[in-house]
Every structure is written in C-alpha cells, then in structure tokens.
Amino acid sequence: MKKILLVIQREYLTRVRKPSFWILTIVVPLLLALVYAIPIFLAAHSIEHANVMVADESGVFMDRFQSNDDVTYLPAGGLDYAQRQLREVDSIDAVLYIPARFNTIPTDAFLYYRSDKPTTQVQKDVDNQLQVILRDKILLDVHNISSDDYALITSTTIRLHSLDLETGRDGFLEVKILLAAILAFIIFMAVMMFGSQVMRGVAEEKSSRIVEVIICSVRPFQLMMGKVTGIGLVGLTQFLLWLFLSAIAVVGIQTANSDLFAQAQQQINITEVATKGADAAAQMASLQNQGVASELMQGLASINFSAIIFSFVFYFLFGYLLYASLFAAVGSLVDNDTSDQQFTLPLTIPLMLPILLLPAMMKAPAGALSVWLSIIPFTSPIAMMFRIPFGVPFWQLALSMVLLLLTFPLCTWIASRIYKSAILLYSRKITYKDLFSWLRTR
Q1: Under DSSP, is residue 99 helix (H, G, I), strand (E, B) or coil?
Q2: Residues in CB range of 279: below 8 A, 6 or more apart
C-alpha cells in the first residue's frame, strides 16, 4: 500500500505542478467565455449606421419603410437618380430597387452597393421590412385584416406548463434538458480525457523503457493502480476548482442581479399551492406573467444540486476508475511497432453510445432505452447523469451504483492481468487471442 501511495503522489504532483494544468483549469474556461462573449459584444456595439435610398416602381412599398437605429430609409425619384447618388454621395450606403410588376405583386427586390457591402444587420433589416410591408398589403387588400389585428392574432399564444400533481411545481423541462446534456458531456469528456492520459502515460513509459526500472521496486499492479488513482485525483481536483470558480461566479451574478433571483424564488413559493380551484387560477396567472430569465432562474432554483453534485462525484470517480484501468491495460499493449486502435475501439464505443443516443433519451428520459443505459455499468456514468435532473426512482439509482461498484473490481482485475503480462513485451503484435490466454493463465 505504501508503494501505491508513492506512485499516486508522484503522478499527482507531477501533473498538478505543470503550468498546463493551471492553464486548463483557469485560463481555458475564461477563454471559452470570451470566445462566446466577444462576438455578442461586437455584434451589439460595432454596427455602423447606414443610409439606404428606396426606388420603388411598384408603389407597394412607397413611404412604408421605417427608419431605426441601424438604417435610415430615404425616398428616391427613380433608379437612375438613386444610383447616381450612390456613386457621388459618400453618405449614401446602398440603394434598394423594387421593379414594377403589372397585375401581380412584386416578387424581387435588388440592393445595390459600392465597394463596401452592407452589413448583415442592414440586409436583414431591409429584408424583414420588405416581408412585413408586403404581408400587411396582402392582408389588408385581400383579407381586410389590418396590421394591428394581425399583430394581435400572432401575439396571442398559450404556454404549456408541466406541473407535479403533489407539489404543484413546474417541471421546467427545457432547463432540465440543458443541464442534463451539459452533465452528460462533462462526464464523457472527463472519462475520455483522463483515461487517455493514463493510456498515453503507460505507453510512454513502456516505449522509453522507464518501466523496466520502475518495476524493479514496484509490482506491476501497484504501478498501474497508482497511476490510475493519481491521474484520477488530478481530474477530481480540476473539477473541484471549476466548481469553486462556478460558485464564485454564481454568487457574483446573484449579488449583481439580486432582484431577478428574488423574483425566481418568490415564483417558486407561489407555485407551492394546490392544483385545484382558485389557487390553481392564481397559480396559472402568476406563471403566465413571468419572463424568460425569471423562468430560467426558477428552473435552476428548483433543481436539487446537492444530489447532482454527489452523483457527479460518484459517477466520475468510479466511471473513471473503471475505464482508466482498461485504458492502462491498452497502454501496456502499445509500443512503437504496434497500433492501439484495435484495442481502444471497444472502449470508446460504450462511451460514445449514450452521447449518440442523447436525442432519443431527451424524448423519453424515463423510457426503456434511458433506463437500461443508466443501469449498464459501461454506459451508466453518462446516461444516469443525464437522467438525474429529471428525477430518478431510488431503486434504479441504487441498482446502477451497485452494478458499477461490482464491475469496477472485475475490470481492474482483468486490466491488471493484461498489464502485468504485456508491460515488458516489446516488438510483437498482440492479438485478442493473447489477451484471453493471459486471463486464463494463473
């Protein structure tokens, strides 16, 4: 046990002390946030105002374009005059030409510009106004429906809420689907990334023959378990740091937007009513008046994050240990003259299966497919983390955890037999027949 702890200490400290660990832990999430934030900021603040002259020969769009913060529409007597203005006047950015169509409505419009093409926002605004004006014209002339009446018709909607019969709580299905998908992808990326690190570490030690020196003082099983556990602790440390940084971010956002969070909590308290009679009517009225941001906050506040954090730590640890031991065995099979693809494929298929079947699981989180994937040990770390935000029966969660706990030692035993037999085997193409013979040999 002492030697295993020494290997764990070496693997853990070697990786944690690397600058790449801290870059991946702190800098990369910030860079990803900037990658998403910068385009949004630029799109919101860098749009230049444009002046567009409208040459409408059809008469349908005459004086109907509405100027706004992005575009100013100017009437033009004709196409020739508008094009001459576009060439000679720098303040004119584009010319919109709508040719006349006799006996039919206009079907084409043309936007002329100089060397500088109008921005996407300008083109979008022009296109939207063309469609709205033409629609209003047809509605009024053909169906005698005004634009105000049409706006009233299209704005009248009914929103469906899924409510628990006992508690009266909204299900917040969209929020749970988003959170479930994020959890499933995090588990998948964590197991794949850190499992691959174990495989590469074992393969590098074997190809450089450093392992020949190490096993003089450490048994192969001790070396394998120390490496697997040490890298797993590195991954757990990284996730705990991410959780800590996320908690700081949430507290900061909650402090800056305390009103939004207070409204969300108040709305959740309101929905804790009976689902009959006057209480139900008041509940429905309150739900209809909430905004999208408030609904998102309510969905997050309604989720039991303590259960999610516990389940995440459990499935990450034992899912990683299950696969990492097998990845370590694959790493022991690899040297400079052989390929690891034939052995890594059987490991990646069960990992990829829940991700590939995620759309089907979204349709029925409690369906037979989702239940079986969340119980089978090789797919349960990803599938069960997807299902947990929706609520999982206790017996299914317990069965999934017990099967994972029972499968982990079996996979570790198999991996140790392969690792011990292959770690010092060089310049030979290993087959599956060799693997089965090693498992049968005492």
Answers
A1: coil
A2: 273
Give the pLDDT confidence score for residue 171 in this predicted structure: 54
pLDDT of residue 39: 58
pLDDT for the residue numbered 162: 64
pLDDT given for residue 43 in this prediction: 56
**Of 304, 186, 300, nearest to 254 (Cα)?**
300
Buried-exposed string 374-383: b where 16+ CB fall within 10 A, e elsewhere: bbbbbbbbbb
pLDDT for residue 41: 61
Scanning the structure block, which residue is given the tokens 């089965």? 436
Helix, strand, or coil (residue 253): helix
Write phi, then psi, for 52 (nearest 5 degrees). Answer: -120, 125
- Structural domains of the chain sorted by starting position, each given as residue range(s) with its CATH number in brackets: 48-131 (3.40.190.10), 169-242+304-440 (no CATH)
Whole-angstrom distance, CA of residue 191 vs CA of residue 306? 22
Closest Cα partner for 4 from 220, 213, 324, 316?
A: 220
Q: How many residues does the chain have?
A: 442
The SS3 call for residue 50 is strand
Q: Which residues contact 372 (CB under 8 A, 6 or more apart)?
A: none
Q: Which residues of the chain have pLDDT under 70?
A: 28-29, 32-47, 159-173, 250-304, 335-341, 427-428, 442
What does the angle CA 262 – CA 264 – CA 268 come to, to the nearest 5 degrees? 115
Q: The whole model's pTM is what? A: 0.62
